[in-house]
Amino acid sequence: MSIVIVGTGYVGLVTGACLSEVGHSVACVDVDAKRMKRLANGEVPFYEPGLEDLVRNGIDSKRLSFSTSLPDAYRAAKANRTLSAPVVMIAVGTPSSEDGSADVSGVLQVAREIGSVIDEYTVVASKSTVPVGTSEKIAHAVESGGADRSKFDVVSNPEFLKEGAAVDDFMRPSRIVLGSNAAAATELMLELYRPFNMSHERVMTMGTREAELTKYAANALLATKISFINEIANLCDKLGVDVDSVRRGIGSDPRIGHSFIYPGAGYGGSCFPKDVRALIHAAQGVGIDPYVLTAIHQRNEQQKHFLLDKVLAHFGNDLSAHTIAVWGLSFKPGTDDVREAPALSTVRGLLEAGANVRAFDPVASAQFEAALTPANSTSNRFTIVQDKYEALQGASAMLLLTEWKEFRNPDFERMRTLMKQPCVFDGRNQFDPNRLRAAGWTYVGVGRT
Ligand SMILES: NC(=O)c1ccc[n+]([C@@H]2O[C@H](COP(=O)([O-])OP(=O)(O)OC[C@H]3O[C@@H](n4cnc5c(N)ncnc54)[C@H](O)[C@@H]3O)[C@@H](O)[C@H]2O)c1
């Protein structure tokens, strides 16, 4: 099949590379000309395990191409197509507006552009996460771009991949949600996803509005689990209870499960925070008081300060005499994405308190530095280093903020020789508190006695 994907970010590029890997012909489009030039040379602009190999395979097999022109990509898709009609997927960002709602202006702008280029029956599929009712707005936008209503159908096809495991998630999806009110469009999308649906049935068909809400509900529920365990961890902290025992105790119940109940420094990334905010806004818009959703969001905002508050409680509010080492800057392991990463608020707080900060991340340093944009007075107190041990030089404490595998079992003896004092704030509960305390370390975790 011939597919055009508009928006070549995390979702668009993974989708394009995986669809081309299974034999489809894919043209990726983006407004970022520099990004597309790099991609045409096989250079992936962000860190995602396994993606570069797929992109190179796609380029070598001539099934994957990159362009800044939607009309050119659409023409090429029509020329390359086999029997079926072309599919144009929208995968541009839907960031938070100031009021918390999802800003779908990029999606609708792309829809208008699509309307101005399609000249035969085409399926327009939205992979972007969009509020309920957006598929109908996409249809209006495609029409207002100039397309006849009989020439297209809109499908809501939300994406559930996780950054850091995106290729695997796409290749072996837990489910493929197709929201469509048109049988012809559903058929075409089933054909598109057939290679991913071989071993067992993964496709779920539903209406467009149901598909749109499924995506938000999924992210909000995962965020709920994180905020819930973080609240329990705060309780543990005050009551002198070990949250790790509690976590294992509840996770063994199959109705609860072990995943997403790890306490830590809060959730971040490009999805959970904005999607929870968008759902709160959507609920308020229809007169529902979003008690649960609001609490999830508020707990997370609090949780981002948990470790900083512990550091200030330990050293006092003036950190100007201290160097603090930070391990991990991305919002989670396996990605260089720092959007809404807890490390951003923690490092900003440390700098505001006067600390010198020496930070290390295996892949996210450049992105973090760009996102941090510290004020001039603090910028000379923030240093990125190339090795985790180098970050510890002269540090009064180390803060672990992202649980990269390489941080799991460090050489604590070596660490002690580099640091001013043996002190660790474990924002992801990765280390053994008993072992460290027995060896003379000051250990502070999240809800660990
Ligand atoms: N990142 C994830 O893990 C993830 C997972 C599931 C769903 N989503 C959703 O998918 C959507 C995209 O997310 P993302 O993380 O891939 O975003 P992203 O910011 O990484 O990528 C978006 C891309 O769209 C491009 N773009 C913007 N306007 C354009 C236009 N008019 N024409 C062509 N290209 C344009 C940008 O240049 C950028 O490269 C969002 O709605 C997000 O919520 C993201």
Give an overview of the whole structure.
With 449 residues, the chain is α/β, with parallel strands linked by helices. The chain is 44% helix and 14% strand. The protein folds into three domains: 2-206, Rossmann fold; 216-302, N-(1-d-carboxylethyl)-l-norvaline Dehydrogenase, domain 2, CATH 1.10.1040.10; 304-444, Rossmann fold, CATH 3.40.50.720. It has helices spanning 10-21, 33-40, 51-60, 70-80, 105-117, 134-144, 166-171, 183-193, 208-239, 243-251, 272-285, 291-303, 306-315, 342-352, 365-372, 376-379, 412-418, 433-438; strands at residues 2-6, 25-29, 64-67, 87-90, 122-126, 152-156, 176-180, 203-206, 323-327, 356-360, 382-384, 397-400, 423-426, 442-444. It has an eight-stranded mixed β-sheet with strand order 3-2-1-4-5-6-7-8, with helices on both faces. A six-stranded parallel β-sheet has the order 11-10-9-12-13-14. Helix 1 packs across helix 3 and helix 9 (208-239) crosses helix 12 (291-303). The protein binds nicotinamide-adenine-dinucleotide. The site of nicotinamide-adenine-dinucleotide has 26 residues, from helix 1 and helix 5. Nicotinamide-adenine-dinucleotide is lined by residues 6-12, 29-32, 91-94, 106, 109-110, 127-129, 159, 161, 163, 270-271.
